[in-house]
Specification:
Distance between the termini of chain A: 65 Å
Number of strands of chain A: 2
Number of helices of chain A: 5
Largest sheet of chain A: 2 strands, antiparallel
Helix content of chain A: 55-70%
Strand order of the largest sheet of chain A: 1-2
Oligomer: homodimer
Order of helices and strands of chain A: HHHHEEH
Chain lengths: 116, 116
């Protein structure tokens, strides 16, 4: 471990942390606001926030007294870029599936026309 | 844990497993072929392959005697789809950075023209 990509993916491997990130896409939020939707103690939520902060997926402001948390884009972007070659892979597979379905629908249509 | 997305991200949180997946984007490979680039025992590599198989990121053929491993596209696709809202987030940030840089370069150009 230790590399940024591994740290990013490890931080994303938890539904609570993903829900926190998802909340932050609509804007900054305080720790209390982030904790509100979860049936979890504040220390438990704080622990998740620390994992996200260590992974640099979020940062916490120092200026305001409520110290809002906000998204940091860079690590998520790196993770998405790592996935790009796989995107090509599954798109090719979808294209092949598409060709196959078109092929069988043509064959079915031809058989149907012959019957008439 | 237990949900597919968490299992996918946990499986991706390791450089050896990511390297194995990367090798498989160029086609099927046997366990021995996959193990070759790593300074690792075959059982250690097999352990990583089992994590990838449990996460359904790869599947292993039964037909041929060499039982080739190949990529399964669906879980990676689901993970990439989960990341889409964040893509919009960092693209907006890049747009803002772009606007800012254009703005200061205009201001600098104007100041430069005034001097002349």
């Amino acid at each position: 471990m230790g590399d940024q990509l591994s740290t990013t993916f490890a931080a994303l491997a938890d539904p609570t942390r993903r829900a926190i990130l998802s909340r932050l896409t609509s804007g900054e939020a305080s720790v209390t606001e982030l904790a509100a939707p979860f049936e979890m103690s504040l220390p438990a939520v704080t622990k998740h926030l620390k994992v996200l902060q260590r992974a640099r997926l979020i940062s916490q402001g120092r200026e305001a007294q409520w110290r809002p948390c906000k998204l940091s884009a860079a690590p998520m972007r790196e993770a998405a870029e790592w996935m790009e070659p796989y995107r090509r892979h599954w798109e090719q597979r979808l294209d092949r599936l598409d060709d196959y379905l078109r092929d069988i629908s043509h064959k079915t249509a031809r058989r149907f026309r012959k019957k008439k």
